[in-house]
Fold this sequence. Notes:
This protein is α/β, with parallel strands linked by helices. It has 13 helices and twelve strands. The chain has two domains: about 5-115 and about 350-360, Enolase-like, N-terminal domain (Enolase-like, domain 1, 2-Layer Sandwich); about 120-345, TIM Barrel (Alpha-Beta Barrel).
Amino acid sequence: MRLTEWSTHPIRLPYPHAIQWASMGEDGADYLLLRLVGDDGTVGVAEGVVKLTWHSVTLRSLEVVLEEIFIPAIREIDLLDEAAVTRALAAIRDHRLARSMIDVACWDLRSQVRGAPLWQLWGGDPEVDVSWTVTRRPPEVMAQDAAEMVERHGFRMLKVKGGQGREKDRAALTQIRAAVGPDVKMYVDANGHYSQDEMPSYVQELADFGVVVAEDPCRFQPNRAFARLQENSPMPLLVDNGCRSAADASLFLEQGAKALSVKLSGAGATEGLRMAKMAHDQGCAAHVGFMGETSMGAMVALQMAAALPGRADCLPAETSFFLTFGEEYVAERLRVEDGKVQLPTTPGLARWVDWERLRSYQP
């Protein structure tokens, strides 16, 4: 299958309330939808989450990178040939978000030609567990959000955004636990806010609250210092920032990592699944991390999560952010019931796009 047509579609979706990430605050999110058309008319699509502080791109710069670098790289190759596409993309340094979008759109084409959804092609399950991410706000508001989402959607795992200072983190965990009860599990992502010297006492404090995993409590590098931190930690340390490729994963695994975050927008599907297999082969859990996708982006990330090796031992996928939005550009939104998402049984992502509605969200 050769590429005959392609296009990009910028989207701006408002949040119902402002969200404070570790690196920025925002009242809405930008996305770029990529559309590839094969010579038989098959359409493959992929969504990119566009945040300057996360991926060093804007909507316009991402469009230019796709147009001038990646589309020429795949124009003359067989898009159904996974190895050929992987070689073409590997020849381009950097631009991981654009690379992952091409990778996903090509997988979407393959799934349609093979007549099976992605989760089935990758050897996965038809449903997947998900967690809810409680973002940084005053502790009482975080607790209210956690309780409402557990009640409404049956989440059994919460990812709590920490890094607001020890006192506020303690208050948030105390109030969230009181709000959701003893049966809902929690893990905490401090986005590297604390120092390596603070980390041991901070993680011990998390353990005292019943937290099961500590994600990036401090900045990690794949060295002996990390190995010592993990050896002395009362819980697995989940490596997120600093692990965006198979090469990164290999270095952390050499230092005894027990949990790695795999992100679709950073690694793409092909490399993300490879990272997960590497981790599993060395007794390390991998899980699909948070990237703020809509239902469209989540549809791919969740299918990857459903196919992770050793998935029964993995954390639930952090891919439920689509519930944040009042409306989206898809014809039918994903649903979370009893903490799970039922995955599509037929292939093809373009059929989920409401193209008229999408135009109404163009910035």
